Amino acid sequence: MPLKPVSVMWESTIACGLACKHCKASARAERDPRELSTEESYAFIDQIVAFGKPYPVLRITGGNALRREDIFDIIRYAKDSGLKVTIAPSTTPLLNRKNIERLKRAGCDVVAVSIDGATPEQHDSFRGMPGTFDRLVKATEIMRELNLPFRLLTTVTRHNVRELPEIMFLARRLGAIGWYLYMLIPTGRATEELALSPAEYEDVFHFVYDAMRLPLIVVNAIAGSEPYRRVAVMRRLVEEGMLEESALMQGELYSLLRRKLTKLAEEAGLEEAEVAETSYSPKDSSVFGKGIFVAHRGEIYPSSFMPVTLGNVREDVLKVVYTTSDVLKALHDATKLKGRCGVCEFNDICRGSRSRAYAVTGDYLAEDPYCAYIPGRVELPDVNKEAILNELRVTNFSRRVG
Ligand code: SF4
């Protein structure tokens, strides 16, 4: 059990003007009067600081955080307290030059903006509002002009999965410092119909492995991507001749994504690196529950996708909750896992998406129902899997981000 989280994600408000098909917060038009007040937000930040240095990163989400007029003061307070702060505002008219300048002045380190399609039609239909794509492009131009780093986030769904290569190249063209992929977790408005099949997720993970080889942009597969770690290790073992290629479960979707990626890379004159420098770090906050989530009314959850209440920052001390919670202890313990994840030879590095297990089965220790792997399928050589992942980690961010 880690002594502190890598990051604390805060749902600053539930208010949002968009109606995204996959919204985990089931955001609504108006703010909830029971949201943390400004003073309570400062006290909550003090609780993050109490974890000690190096401080967990404060990741501000929503709803739309820009619906809070005090959000700039709160960011300033967090920065003055020594925290690194990221914010993921919605792409509404509030993401305008004035507010982007205020984010920059408040000291915000990175802005994260969602992109769910490579074209205005695709993106806007997903986001539930016309004009969102154009607004996103405009916002990225302003952020580039102001030298405010931004990432683009894509939730992978049935609607956009075939466009992933185009979205990746678009992210680079727009000047993003990273492209982060979320695999859909069926919570909030995100229904299981939007999700891919386990075999299709497997194909996406193979695509991500290839995408990370291009000296293009930092690619990171986060929430719902836990089995990616198994795929990365298997790919590396195949490359080193320690595993038969037939062990890899690659289907039609992967062939399509691979073809598109190769074509786009050729057009751009890019060559693949010998080794996929995955940015999927063992320290990633989405793995093994190394992050923690604070909801808009102060409830503490293991993650934004797992609404299991551990306490409330209004009454409880975040650090005490994090270090003593039986739920978190169970989530960090591979021996507690059930089903396939419980007997899997990769569960030391993977453990499946606990949030997805919870969303689908109601049991956060159940097997990840969207993993395609059957334990015992491969004869695994005696290797240190964590060391392989470490070797694959990004060693060369600067080459990618330029
Ligand atoms: S069975 Fe579970 S632990 Fe094994 S690779 Fe799949 S999700 Fe990971």
Please describe what this structure looks like.
Mean pLDDT is 87; it is low at 274-288 and 394-402. Strands 7-6-5-4-3-2-1-8-9-10 form a ten-stranded mixed β-sheet. The protein is globular, with a radius of gyration of 20 Å. Helices cover 37% and strands 11% of the residues. It has one domain (7-286, 393-401): Aldolase class I (TIM Barrel, Alpha-Beta Barrel). It starts with 6 loop residues before the first strand and ends with a helix. It has 402 residues and is α/β, with parallel strands linked by helices. The chain is built from 15 helices and ten strands. The structure holds iron/sulfur cluster. Residues 226-227, 230, 340-341, 344, 346-347, 350-352, 367-368, 371, 373, 375 line the site of iron/sulfur cluster.
List the main descriptive attributes of the protein structure presented here.
TIM Barrel, disordered C terminus, alpha/beta, 15 helices, binds iron/sulfur cluster, 402 residues, 37% helix, single chain
Q: Which regions have little confidence, pLDDT < 50, spanning 5+ residues?
A: 274-288, 394-402
**CATH homology group:** Aldolase class I
Strand order of the largest sheet: 7-6-5-4-3-2-1-8-9-10
* Total E-strand runs: 10
Whole-number radius of gyration? 20 Å
What does the average pLDDT come to? Answer: 87
Number of domains: 1
- Binned strand content: 5-15%
What separation lies between the terminal Cα atoms?
36 Å
Give the name of the CATH architecture.
Alpha-Beta Barrel
Bound molecules: iron/sulfur cluster
Task: Outline the biggest β-sheet.
Answer: 10 strands, mixed
For the record, the CATH class is Alpha Beta
At CATH level 3, the topology is TIM Barrel
What would you call the structural class? Answer: alpha/beta
Q: Return the string of H and E elements.
A: EHEHEHEHHEHEHEHHEEEHHHHHH
Helicity range: 25-40%
